[in-house]
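Example record

Each entry pairs one chain with its bound ligand, flavin-adenine dinucleotide.
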Amino acid sequence: MNEFDIIVVGGGSAGSAIAGRLTEDPTINVCLVEAGGSNKDWRVHTPGMMPFLPEFTNWYYATIPQKGLNGRQGHQPRGKGMGGSSAINAMLYVRGNAWDYDNWAAVGCDGWAFDDVLPYFKRSESNERGGSEFHGGDGPLSVSDQHSVNAGSRAFVDSAAQLQLPRNEDFNGAAQAGFGIYQTTTKKGERWTASRAYIDPVRSRPNLHVMTDCLTEKLIVQDGRVTGVQIVRGGRTETLHARSSVVLSAGAFGTPQILMLSGIGPADHIRHHNIDVVLDKPSVGENLQDHIDYVASFETESKDFIGDSLAGTARMAKAIIEHRLRRTGIMTTPYAEAGGFWSPDPDAPAPQIQYHFVPAMLEDHGREKVKGHGFSCHACVLRPESKGRVRLKSNEAGDMPAIDPAFLEDDRDIALLRAGVRQMYRIFDAPPLSDYHPRDRHPVDINDDAALDQALRNRSDTVYHPVGSCAMGPNESDVLTPRLKFRGLEGLYVADASVMPKIVSGNTNAPSIMIGERCADFIKADLR
Ligand SMILES: Cc1cc2nc3c(=O)[nH]c(=O)nc-3n(C[C@H](O)[C@H](O)[C@H](O)COP(=O)(O)OP(=O)(O)OC[C@H]3O[C@@H](n4cnc5c(N)ncnc54)[C@H](O)[C@@H]3O)c2cc1C
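Structure tokens for the complex follow.
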């Protein structure tokens, strides 16, 4: 009962795609092991409940104190339970730039150029606008237009147009640059997590075994081959055996943590935590990259924006009822409704800055509740030069790992962020957004480099896209081959956001799902 062909660890964006695709072949027996629960909860399914999700959906990680952020610790939410981070994310459907993937191929990841990955993006996608040169029309992952866009979000795009910044109706089409309204991973008004896309419709397959509430503690390695995993279920330790392979899809923090707990990674660090070294692999946990992000927040007299007031609360209460009854209205919002991609350097190969406009005041990742109405806007650096690492804090699998994204340690990142924030303020100063007469909640002289840098270091944090901590590459020292096989052990693949050699210029859910799709094909080919 505890033996399978393939064990996939982590039922998140990539893991769900892998298990769903592998079990299309009835001869492949797959066990999907997830630490959290089923996430079948109306709050998870309701896009607008994102700020009020139950605690069981989130690992609530934090970074170690960040030198580049004046010693502050960053917040690092990570999805727990089926769907992983796609169950708590902002649902924006963005693949990054074609250049990102061509660049992966250029740095030695053969088979990952844009022309190679586009068929997998299309295969995964079912776009409400239908299939086309750039989009899939009948894949498992539902992608929809927003049907209840706040007037303020449209005002943001119109204000950008006042600065001659182009409009963009499709950030995943022929060109990425420009401003517009995001498409979302939703279906008929509900959040469409990776597990709703890939697992729920095929749960009855006899060759698919989904085990929730099972924490994977470590890999079992015998004579250089991974033969299974050790899990804890209901307080009891058990072993699951893999006849063929184990796939780690526990995310950019979970995957390197499980490897190091298994004695695979930087030897000195592993020994320091009283774990027997199985394989000295210094690159495990290195190369961590994340999008550093600054949020400006403005208060308005206008109650058009989502907010906390008598009128605002009554409107939200009505909206919840509307959504429960018809799956329409304000509660279909991803909050980050509008946005854009822009470069201060006209010669940059792809946009350097991304904006997320939210028609509500946002403070401290939504953890601080603010009275009144207004809007906020994020500006993030799309290809940061700073690189950090994931390490262990202890040898307990249930403990948070030591996360160090090294935010703003490279001065090129703060220079780009400065430029991105200045451009954002120029947009705020243009009509129609300026007609709301917004009051800045954190005024700063944006023309004063030193003052702006202080504000950036005091208030910036992640926009939730950690990647790269178990990267593929062409060298023996890289963690993975470009076919996602672990270098140095048999019977082990990694597929999730951790495999990216370089962070992509956009949000990371669709790319993680694409990575899962590809891994399933690699495994099927290897099994033949
Ligand atoms: C708040 C937030 C907002 C975001 N917004 C967007 C957005 O709008 N658009 C977008 O494209 N991206 C967004 N992202 C990022 C995106 O969701 C992630 O990059 C993507 O989901 C990562 O996929 P993954 O497969 O690497 O990991 P995950 O989806 O995080 O999956 C990892 C899974 O492994 C499980 N796991 C971990 N450790 C263990 C263990 N020891 N044993 C068993 N299971 C384990 C976890 O519980 C989890 O289910 C957001 C992320 C967050 C947190």
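DSSP finds twelve helices and 25 strands in the chain.
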